[in-house]
Amino acid sequence: MEKQNFKAIDDLVLGIELIVLKNRGSLSNDDVVLLQSCNVKLKEFKKLKKRESGIPKELIADIISIMLRVFASINFDTIL
């Protein structure tokens, strides 16, 4: 189970990095900073290696909150 949790973190970090890397102008500088802060939080957690308790719900809530702020600010009509 713990390997699966850390694989999920690695996948999320990679996904966020790809979103930032492939930004085609739809993300503001603030959005990029928020996404990078997600990655910092995820990487810091992974370094702590708190495997016995799993991923804290507070961390998950922080990441979801940041992602919602970023993607709620994008006007998807202009992308499609």
The succession of helices and strands, N to C, reads HHHH
- The global form is globular
Sheet with the most strands, sense and barrel status: none
- The overall pLDDT, averaged over residues, is 78
Assign the structural class, choosing from mainly alpha, mainly beta, alpha/beta, alpha+beta, or little secondary structure: mainly alpha
Helix tally equals 4
- Helix content range of the residues, please? over 70%
How big is the Rg? 14 Å
Oligomer: single chain
Q: In whole angstroms, how far apart are the ends? A: 38 Å
Low-pLDDT sequence parts: none
Q: Strand share of the residues?
A: under 5%
Gist of the model:
By secondary structure, the chain is mostly helical. The chain has helices spanning about 1-20, 30-50, 55-70, 75-80. The model has no long low-confidence stretch (mean pLDDT about 80).
Q: Explain this structure to me?
A:
With 80 residues, the protein is mainly alpha-helical. It is built from four helices and no strands. α1 runs antiparallel to α2 and α2 runs antiparallel to α3. The longest helix is centred in the first third of the chain and has 20 residues. It is globular, with a radius of gyration of 14 Å.
Label this structure with key terms.
80 residues; mainly alpha; globular
Describe the SSE topology.
Blueprint: H1 2-21, H2 29-48, H3 57-72, H4 76-79
Helix pairs in contact: 1-2, 2-3
